[in-house]
Design a protein that fits this description.
Layout (H helix, E strand, L loop, with lengths): L1 H15 L5 H10 L1 H4 L3 H5 L1 E9 L4 E10 L2 E3 L4 E6 L2 E5 L20 H11 L10 E6 L2 E4 L9 E10 L4 E11 L6 E7 L5 E6 L1 E3 L33 E4 L13 E4 L30 E5 L18 E2 L13 H21 L24 E5 L8 E4 L8 E4 L1 E2 L8 E5 L6 E7 L13 E7 L21 H4 L3 E5 L5 H10 L4 E5 L20 E4 L1 H12 L5 E6 L9 E2 L4 H16 L16 H11 L54 H22 L11 H15 L6 H16 L4 H10 L41 E4 L6 E6 L4 E8 L5 E9 L2 E5 L6 E9 L2 E9 L1
Parallel strand pairs: 3-8, 13-16, 15-17, 17-19, 23-24, 24-25, 25-26
Antiparallel strand pairs: 1-2, 2-3, 2-4, 4-5, 6-7, 7-8, 8-9, 9-10, 10-11, 12-18, 13-14, 18-19, 20-28, 21-22, 21-27, 22-26, 23-27, 29-30, 30-33, 31-32, 31-34, 34-35
Helix pairs in contact: 6-10, 10-11, 11-12, 12-13, 12-15, 13-14, 14-15
């Protein structure tokens, strides 16, 4: 079956590829010269850098470079979409009247001397034993690594645009991948003076804490021999013990043994093939898409690979929690699995061979090959970090995954449920009560009992322990469970201790991280810990159903000897890192790797988004809290993660708008604002089309959203900003879906300040844009009686349990809130003062769909409201 699918792929792509679209592009540019302020020579001297066929848009993505006398203008890669022989989309990064802006056509500095100049500017040793290995053209060469780079050094003559003078300087473009993998420099050296004109870094790092250390030398094994794995194994039947998608990691579920998860379309010969012939060449974590190995000594060398034997059975125990070195083969296996899953899933959304994906051998013979991912597990060159280096198509990327000392709030404190459907490890936070008792390192094991009180005081929750406790007999000698809130913390703990509890498990009353409970005036002799709301509510439900839940509480001692977590088990971080490779290859086309170096670029945002959408589950809610790196940080699945705010449609927890990028640090903070917008869009599409757990071929809103995001990257210009990204997604929907989701997309972005009137300014600055909340006529959210097409009020959470928050863009003062059922009957009304935020209590409404009308300050808005 796989062989048949493979032949179909080969036939389809070879029939469709090969047409030269340069004349189509030239005709389009000639017809639109005035619009783009181009001169005749700007149109005539171009080259097609790459092209690919988009199945989703049924059109060709053609990436065109501007040239002057055959010399390329660096980062001029411009995407054209050609459908039925006609250009239907073009985003130009050309320089008008280039001939008048160039300083020379002949270099004074040789290519080999440019390498030495670059090394000097970068603070590297002088290159040694440099030799010319290959001449690719009149102005393009490949030199040996000079003992300063992991890979051979390509050098090409280009023009570098100087933003301060709008001039074009002749330059040598070259790349140097440092021996310690900390930087992969793309450098332009002035071909006349030897000055450093521009530097990009193809290594994108998610640094959080301690930085990298130095590496030793490296040895490339890209096309190494197969002497250790020469016996060909049968295709199929491979099995891997991993934390399978959509699990976030060990904080989200148990490891499982998966059989033959390779996708037959994306990896037709399995994950251990490199020659396109049935039968796997390797029994280790090596194949066409990725080579996963440990790099504990941080030298990028030939580290240990996990070996599944002739049966390709990669069944290695994790037995968490324990030191990462004790489950190294298991960690390598999960890293291998996730890289392959990213390859296979994204293949279905257009990141295929001719679009620049990562494969050693391209089975279709399209695109540049030789570039599978080097994935380093438990990399010893640093802590609390991960990175991904993406050279242009044909250059092998490297992913480095580190160990984490879990610097988040939740550290070293655990609760284990020992049996039943809730069995597993639950992360917690120890209390910090004055005169309290910390959780001991000696385990406490006992049944859990839910606290019941008589609600005789001000509290309305019978399970918070704030009033007279009714079930002291059941609590005596057991571990009590109570919700947080309702009264003074030490007071409730004292009451529960008096009832005979030997420890207290407190369930957080918000989706945020557990907190170190504070307070004085107590002499507690029993330990108290807090767990996540989602974890705790599941336990409370089980206890209310009469289930026996036996648990063990313990402190692993990490306060003095930090308990390390392995980033190789955090699927969101792996997806994030791989995502940098996707966005870098799709923006500007696979031959460009420097199109996401500007300040307003959204690379970190796309990467976070990939981690979020691939770990969505049926039954998730839009208001749930999600974060990047929750496992590595020692958080539960509802942790905030690495970013300043969690990902959720709940404005009370994440109120990011376009203007927020001005105060967020680039690139991670800026990217998190973009992810927030994409997350809102995804949930709006899910509300419209439902959720489909089939991430490969599903038709749900999540699948539609991911496809639009991928196509948007192909359509946007080099060095994009937020407005560019928004417009590309709108354009992708127009081309692929006939604009069926146009208004939905506009409303999703407008809600976060990226409306029609939003201005981007320079994409090299995150400070000069202006947010706006308007939508095009006909896309208004509800009906506005003042003719406005602006989203004036945000209603959240929506769906709601009846507690409704309203955020106003304006201080409207006195306002009227009216709620109507779907028959038009008014079922709720209230007068409020609405300045910036207000709350409305509509708990009396039955579950269903309503319309909420907000009127005040000559503004009116009607929106859909869902009550659970």
């Amino acid at each position: 079956m796989k062989k048949i699918l493979y032949l179909i792929i080969i036939l389809a792509v070879n029939l469709s590829f090969g047409q030269d679209y340069s004349n189509v592009v030239k005709t389009y540019l000639q017809q639109n010269r005035t619009q783009y302020s181009l001169q005749q020579q700007d149109v005539s001297d171009i080259s097609v850098a790459s092209q690919s066929f988009s199945k989703s848009m049924q059109a060709y993505n053609v990436y065109v470079q501007q040239q002057h006398q055959g010399i390329k203008l660096y980062n001029s890669n411009s995407p054209f979409l050609i459908k039925d022989g006609v250009v239907v989309s073009a985003k130009l990064s050309f320089t008008p009247n280039a001939a008048a802006k160039v300083n020379s056509v002949s270099p004074s500095l040789s290519a080999v001397n440019a390498i030495s100049k670059a090394a000097s500017w970068l603070g590297l040793p002088n290159p040694s034993n440099l030799s010319l290995l290959e001449t690719l053209g009149d102005r393009s060469y490949v030199f040996s690594n000079g003992n300063i780079s992991q890979y051979n050094i390509p050098v090409e003559l280009v023009y570098q645009k100087m933003d301060d003078t709008d001039s074009l300087k002749l330059a040598w473009d070259l790349s140097i991948y440092l021996m310690d993998s900390t930087h992969y420099y793309s450098v332009r050296i002035d071909a006349l003076t030897g000055d450093l004109l521009d530097t990009d870094d193809w290594v994108v790092s998610c640094n959080f804490g301690e930085g990298s250390h130095s590496h030793n030398s490296t040895e490339s094994i890209l096309f190494g021999n197969k002497t250790n794995n020469s016996a060909r194994t049968i295709a199929g039947g491979a099995a891997y013990r991993v934390f399978p998608l959509p699990l976030i990691g060990p904080n989200d579920g148990e490891d499982q043994l998966l059989t033959d998860p390779a996708d037959p379309m994306a990896s037709p010969f399995g994950w251990h093939d490199i020659d396109g012939v049935i039968g796997s060449e390797f029994t280790t974590t090596r194949g066409n898409n990725v080579l996963a190995q440990e790099d504990a000594n941080g030298n990028n060398g030939n580290g240990m690979l996990a070996d599944g034997g002739s049966g390709l059975l990669f069944d290695f125990d994790y037995d968490l929690p324990r030191a990462p070195f004790a489950f190294r083969e298991a960690a390598i296996t999960n890293l291998f699995y996730m890289n392959n899953m990213m390859h296979d899933i994204m293949f279905h959304y257009g990141f295929d061979e001719e679009s620049g994906n990562f494969q050693l051998k391209n089975y279709t013979n399209l695109g540049a090959q030789g570039d599978f991912v080097f994935a380093d597990a438990q990399d010893g060159s640093g802590l609390n970090n991960a990175n991904f280096a993406t050279p242009p198509d044909g250059g092998a990327p490297r992913m480095q995954m580190y160990l984490w000392t879990a610097p988040g709030d939740v550290l070293g404190t655990f609760m284990n449920v020992n049996s039943g459907p809730l069995a597993g490890e639950y992360l917690a936070m120890d209390s910090n009560f004055i005169n309290g008792t910390p959780l001991p390192t000696t385990a406490i094991t006992e049944d859990l009992v839910l606290v019941e009180d008589d609600n005789g005081g001000s509290s309305t929750d019978p399970h918070d322990g704030c009033d007279t406790i009714l079930n002291s007999a059941e609590i005596n000698g057991k571990i009590a469970v109570a919700r947080w809130g309702g009264c003074n913390g030490p007071f409730k703990m004292t009451q529960i201790e008096a009832a005979g509890a030997i420890a207290v498990v407190v369930v957080n009353n918000t989706p945020a991280d557990p907190i170190a409970m504070l307070g004085g005036g107590s002499n507690l002799s029993i330990p108290c810990i807090m767990i996540y709301q989602s974890d705790g509510e599941a336990i409370i439900s089980a206890l209310q159903n009469g289930d026996t839940v036996n648990a063990t509480l313990r402190d692993d001692g990490s306060g003095t000897d930090p308990f390390q977590r392995d980033g190789d088990l955090d699927n969101v971080i792996i997806a994030h890192e791989y995502g940098h490779g996707i966005s870098n290859r799709l923006t500007g086309g696979p031959s460009a790797a420097g199109c996401l170096q500007n300040q307003e670029q959204m690379g970190e945002g796309w990467s976070d988004y990939f981690g979020m959408i691939l770990t969505m589950k049926d039954g998730d809610l839009s208001t749930n809290v999600r974060g990047t790196g929750t496992y590595a940080l020692g958080e539960g699945i509802a942790g905030r993660g690495l970013r300043a705010k969690p990902y959720t449609t709940d404005f009370a927890l994440n109120d990011f708008t376009y203007d927020s990028i001005k105060t967020q640090v680039a690139p991670h903070g800026v990217g998190s604002v973009w992810t927030t917008m994409l997350w809102d869009l995804t949930w709006d599409l899910i509300d419209e089309y439902g959720f489909d757990p089939d991430i490969y071929n599903g038709t749900g809103g999540n699948n539609i959203a991911l496809q639009l995001v991928m196509d948007g990257m192909k359509l946007q210009p080099c060095s994009p900003g937020f407005v560019d990204g928004r417009d590309a997604i709108l354009e992708a929907d127009d081309i692929a879906n006939g604009g069926a989701n146009r208004c939905l997309i506009w409303r999703a972005f407008a809600k976060r300040g990226l409306g029609v009137s939003a201005t981007q300014g320079s994409t090299d600055s995150k400070a000069d844009g202006t947010e706006a909340f308007d939508v095009p006529p006909g896309c208004e959210l509800g009906i506005s009686d003042n003719g406005a097409d602006q989203i004036n009020f945000v209603v959240f959470p929506n769906p709601s349990n009846g507690e409704i928050n309203i955020k106003s863009r304006f201080d409207v003062g006195a306002a009227t809130i009216s709620i109507f059922d779907m028959n038009g009957r008014k079922v709720f009304g209230q007068e409020i003062e609405l300045h910036q935020n207000a709350r409305v209590d509509a708990n009396g409404l039955h579950a269903g769909i309503y319309l909420i009308q907000i009127e005040g300050g000559n503004r009116s808005q009607t929106s859909k409201l869902i009550i659970n």
